[in-house]
From TrEMBL:
Gene this protein is translated from: hisC
The keyword Nucleotide-binding is annotated on this UniProt entry: no
Protein name, as recorded: Histidinol-phosphate aminotransferase
Known EC number: 2.6.1.9
Gene3D superfamilies linked: Aspartate Aminotransferase, domain 1, Type I PLP-dependent aspartate aminotransferase-like (Major domain)
Boundaries of every Aminotransferase class I/classII large domain copy: 35-357
Catalysed reactions, as listed in the record: L-histidinol phosphate + 2-oxoglutarate = 3-(imidazol-4-yl)-2-oxopropyl phosphate + L-glutamate
Source species, domain of life: Bacteria
CDD domains cross-referenced by the UniProt entry: AAT_like
InterPro entries, per the entry: Aminotransferase_I/II_large (IPR004839), HisP_aminotrans (IPR005861), PyrdxlP-dep_Trfase (IPR015424), PyrdxlP-dep_Trfase_major (IPR015421), PyrdxlP-dep_Trfase_small (IPR015422)
Cofactor list: pyridoxal 5'-phosphate
Pathway linked to the protein: Amino-acid biosynthesis; L-histidine biosynthesis; L-histidine from 5-phospho-alpha-D-ribose 1-diphosphate: step 7/9
In-chain residues carrying the UniProt-annotated modification N6-(pyridoxal phosphate)lysine: 222
Assigned keywords, A-Z: Amino-acid biosynthesis, Aminotransferase, Histidine biosynthesis, Pyridoxal phosphate, Transferase
Length: 363
């Protein structure tokens, strides 16, 4: 049933005024053959610092080899892949392509990743919050309330984060599919899976065939250890990907970053990535278990990501003790609904041991 394509095209969700928008026609758009390239006002000579002479040319906007490697990694078709400057750019493109400024809205579930609301605000789009609910240390997403809010308040996009930042909680793919079915033809369900590699759980990409109003965000910044290369991927229905491509900046991917990413997806690097992921998972579970009994710790939330969210009696004191030892963690007290909480990313085993020994020492 998952493969039966009965759902409506997501093109219906694209802004009316952008449906036949051509975007900027870059010098790399025409697939022309030639020896001498005089169509982009580039320099005919390289810069002295340019090691192989390639930097003088504008880069390929969507290198096919990288698209294919990412499609293989994420188990989808190259035509379902848009590569951008981190998933941050994917979020921004989706908001701009689907939401009319001043009119439409997005739905978020706080506490969550801040960029959904930032992109919406910058674009003049309303943000509807359907907060996660916490009970006995578990974070629950209210899918009924999301569907109601999206339907009654003209939301074009629902942003789900799984595993959630900062909660670490995983959303069931079956619930996401049911939400997508309820919102078909009304809203795009975007599943931000920046941390899914650490979750050992199925990706929502498998839903896209049957639910064309699902899009998934993936990134090389976390598990693949390439945050500086800024390579994020939107995976969605091919027709929607084509619209996003036309909305994207002319040359979004510096060639050096695209080349590094391709190398990083090779066999040896991929094997090492798997080892790092396994280490992070084991370290996370061990750190969470130990922190749960540390003095001043109220709650350690079960995490499926590469960080743990910890609620303290006094987060300021824990933050200060870590900082005094040179360890910088994320203060979450300003996030809605979190109270005295810190988010601690997993480091190397030595770094995690240092965190533990600081927090286990009586203040
Ligand atoms: N989504 C989530 C949930 C994140 O936590 C982050 C990074 N903090 C991003 C997206 C952005 O990642 P990228 O480096 O791919 O832009």
């Amino acid at each position: 049933a998952l493969d039966a394509d009965t759902s409506a095209s997501p093109l219906a969700l694209v802004r009316d005024d952008l449906r036949d928008f051509g975007g900027y026609r870059s010098a790399r758009s025409d697939k022309l053959q030639g020896e001498v390239w005089l169509n982009a006002n580039e320099s005919p000579w390289p810069n002295l610092a340019d090691r192989d002479g390639s930097l003088r040319r504008y880069p390929d906007p969507q290198p096919q080899a990288l698209r294919e490697a990412l499609a293989a990694l994420y188990d989808c078709a190259p035509a379902q892949v848009l590569v951008g400057r981190g998933s941050d750019e994917g979020i921004d493109l989706l908001v701009r392509a689907l939401c009319r400024p001043g009119g439409d809205a997005i739905v978020v579930n706080t506490p969550t990743f801040g960029m959904y609301a930032v992109s919406a605000r910058l674009h003049g789009t309303r943000v509807i919050d359907v907060p996660l609910r916490e009970a006995d240390g578990e974070w629950r997403c209210d899918f009924d309330a999301i569907a109601d809010a999206a339907r009654t308040q003209a939301a074009r996009i629902v942003f789900l984060c799984s595993p959630g930042n900062p909660t670490g909680a995983l959303l069931p793919v079956g619930e996401i599919a049911a939400l997508a079915a309820r919102l078909e033809g009304r809203a795009l369900v975007v599943v931000d899976e920046a941390y899914v590699e650490f979750a050992d759980a199925p990706s929502a990409t498998r839903l896209i065939g049957a639910h064309r109003n699902v899009a998934v965000l993936r990134t090389l910044s976390k598990a693949h250890a390439l945050a500086s290369a800024r390579i994020g991927t939107v995976i969605a229905d091919a027709a929607l990907i084509e619209v996003l491509r036309r909305c994207q900046a002319p040359y979004p991917l510096p060639s050096a970053c695209a080349d590094e990413a391709l190398r990083a997806l090779g066999r040896d690097a991929a094997l090492q990535t798997r080892t790092r992921i396994a280490t992070v998972r084991a370290e996370r579970d061990a750190l969470a278990a130990r922190l749960a009994t540390a003095p001043g710790v109220r709650r350690v939330y079960a995490s499926r990501a590469n960080f743990v969210l910890v609620r303290f009696d006094d987060a300021q004191s824990a933050f200060d003790r870590l900082l005094a030892a040179g360890v910088v963690v994320r203060d979450m007290r300003a996030a809605p609904g979190l109270g005295d909480a810190l988010r601690i990313s997993l480091g190397t085993p030595e770094q995690n041991a240092a965190v533990l020994s600081i927090l286990e020492a009586r203040a």
